[in-house]
Amino acid sequence: MKRFEEIPHTADWSFRVFGRDMRELFENAAHAIFALEGARARPEASETQREVRVTALDYESLLVNWLTELLWLQESHREMYHRFDITLLTPTELRACVFGAPFSQVDKIIKAVTYHNLSIQQTTDGWEAVVVVDV
Amino acid sequence: MITKQNLERISDCVYQVPQNFRGDMRVPARLYASEELLEDALQDESVTQLVNTATLPGIVQYAIAMPDIHQGYGFPIGGVVATRAPDGVISPGGVGYDINCGVRLLASHLHVDEIAPRIKDLATALYKNCPSGVGSEGSVPLNAQQLDAVLEQGAEWALKNGYARREDLERTEEFGRISGADANAVSKRAKERGREQLGTLGAGNHFIEVDQVAEVYDAKIAERLGLFPGQIVVQIHCGSRGLGHQVCTDYVNDFQRAVREYKIELPDRELVCAPLDSPEGQAYFKAMAASANFAFANRQVLAYHARRSFEEVLAGDVKNFDLFQIYDIAHNIAKIEEHEVAGKRVRVCVHRKGATRAFGPGATVLPDDLRDIGQPVLIPGSMGTASYVLIGTAKAMAETFGSTCHGAGRVFSRAKAKKSVRGETLRNELEARGIAVRAGSMAGLAEEAPQAYKDVSRVVEVVHRVGIGRKVARLEPLAVIKG
Questions:
Q1: B270 vs A115: CB contact, 8 Å cut-off?
Q2: Which residues in chain A touch residue B411, judged by CB atoms under 8 angstroms apart?
Q3: Nearest to B452 by CA among B204, B259, B134
Q4: A111–B204: do the CB atoms touch at under 8 Å?
Q5: Nearest residue in B to A109, CA atom
Q6: What phi and psi values does residue B157 have, to the nearest 5 degrees?
Q7: Contact residues for B328 (Cβ-Cβ < 8 A; gap 6+)
Q8: What's the CATH number where B147 sits?
Q9: Is the pLDDT of residue B387 over 70?
């Protein structure tokens, strides 16, 4: 199963993300943002690890807050992340341990994750979400 | 999808989606566009997004789209929405993530012929002195108290600290300081992001350009503003950086709860809003105003660096290398203003998202020396293309809450731009046309390729023809500096 696909959007970026279950959907959304940014880790860098906890009103806002939190970690530590172990996922709370490394290059920084046309839907293969980000 | 059949033609270049098009619309949705630009707008979700904004509680008269309208998230880019104050709503999405993204125009006393061989050196000096690109850190690191002062005082802080002249503030929208700003309404995280970003350009579509005045359309107004043909001028296009992005993120998130509390039904969650007079609405207004002040100070510090760069390169070669300010405008902002609607003066909260204030002659908020001619309006083009200086009009006051367009407007996606244009090729093309390019990222450069945008001249032609902005001068680029 592919993790995500880019959807054409005139001014910003939009992507559809897939997951066999909700946890995988959230993990793949995280992979999508760093892939879209063209983030590359510094080759010799050693792995870093960060704890994440976010809360929200529902799964949709939880997805926005989760991705927003990762972008915040990226900016404040100048890191990119490549592994996401979600240890708790309810409609209102997410806890995870994320693994990454300092980045050497980013093509384009995502400014923000929006709620525009945000939807999480069940499909025959699992779950699917559409996310629009401001760049 | 909305089609041409859903639109009524009101007059030349003015179209309207009637209020009965959708049951949740509170007012009609009006578009300013030529036939050709209308076709562009109908190709994506822009007009649906415009119609969505017509559902906001308290919206007055109509939702407005400028000819540079393009698809955004929630609100379209190129939109104007005025809501009744104080009981109508304010929407963080109606301002956007880059709060007070805007443009500043500085002018020299030099003719292009005097310094043509030095343009490349100016480009290099500007690139070196104005930090740009992803994660760029500013030249003015701030401690917590200093940042709070910037947030509450805007360009006045820059004046007190030696980065501005009194005349710069006179020639800045709101004199570079929006009242009602409160640093306490800005989150710790937003402040942390802003602390090292004052005096930075950032990335994306932000730029500094050295231009020449290529054509003057209104000699009298141009002379009053200090513009002449062949003149070297500098444009600075940027906003409130990570601080503004975080403020918008924080409040769009908070307002998800507020819409439930105030029982506001919306077609898109990015349109979340709260009554202006509610605690949530007030908190956002204070934080938005603080971010706008940060952006005014940011462009002011960049203007200081631009002056320094001119001095570095030109001192000794020319007698007068000074840069004076023509004007500074915001094109992502919400303002409390008074306008006449159906013969009555009303207080409204005007959301301009990718739209520029264009106050006409007589506006009392303008400085004395501009009041009889109206407000200068700055319309940056896409990279490598023309930009325009317009002047505000009485028609804009009467029809569009004193607003006009803001730029070219995208027609195709960043991904498509990146696929069809290589950054290096684009740079070579621009340089072959005599435009010096200094850019941090070739991929970023490709995304901003002029082919991805509408022709700014066609956009400006519409607002000029309709009369919601009048052409004063056209600028052509000589050097482009990007992150």
A1: yes
A2: 10
A3: B204
A4: yes
A5: B134
A6: -60, -45
A7: B102, B103, B104, B105, B168, B171, B172, B173, B176, B296, B299, B378
A8: 3.90.1860.10
A9: yes
A44-58, A80-94, A106-120, B172-186: which has the minimum mean pLDDT?
Answer: A106-120
In a domain, B52, yes or no: yes
Contact status of B412 with chain A (Cβ, < 8 Å): yes
pLDDT at B452: 83
B286 residue type, one letter: K
Question: How many Cβ contacts (< 8 angstroms) between chains A and B?
Answer: 100
Tokens 């990279």 identify what position? B383
pLDDT of B267 reads: 95
User: Is the pLDDT at A9 greater than 80, yes or no?
Assistant: no
| pTM, two decimal places | 0.96
Measured between CB atoms, which of B134, B270, B443 is closest to A116?
A: B270
Judge contact between A91 and A67, C-beta under 8 A: no
pLDDT in tens, B48-67: 999 999 999 999 999 999 99
Residue B414: predicted pLDDT: 67
Establish whether B351 is a catalytic residue: no
Backbone phi and psi for residue B58, each to the nearest 5 degrees, phi listed first: 85, 0
Domain that holds residue B99: 4-411+453-482
- Judge whether B418 lies within some domain: no
Helix (H) or strand (E) holding B68: strand B63-73
A123 touches chain B (CB under 8 A): no
Domains by residue range for chain A, with CATH = 4-134 (3.55.10.10)
Amino acid identity at B207? F
- Look at residue A51 and tell me whether its pLDDT is greater than 90: yes
A11–B contact, CB cutoff 8 A: yes
Total domain count, chain B: 1
Q: What is the pLDDT of residue A112?
A: 94
Contact between A10 and B98 using a beta-carbon 8 Å cutoff? no
**Does residue B431 form part of some domain?**
no
Q: Is A34 on the interface with B (CB under 8 A)?
A: no
Catalytic residue among B70, B206, B245, B406: B406
Does B199 score more than 90 pLDDT?
A: yes
Interface confidence, given as ipTM, is 0.93
Give domain status of residue B476, yes or no: yes
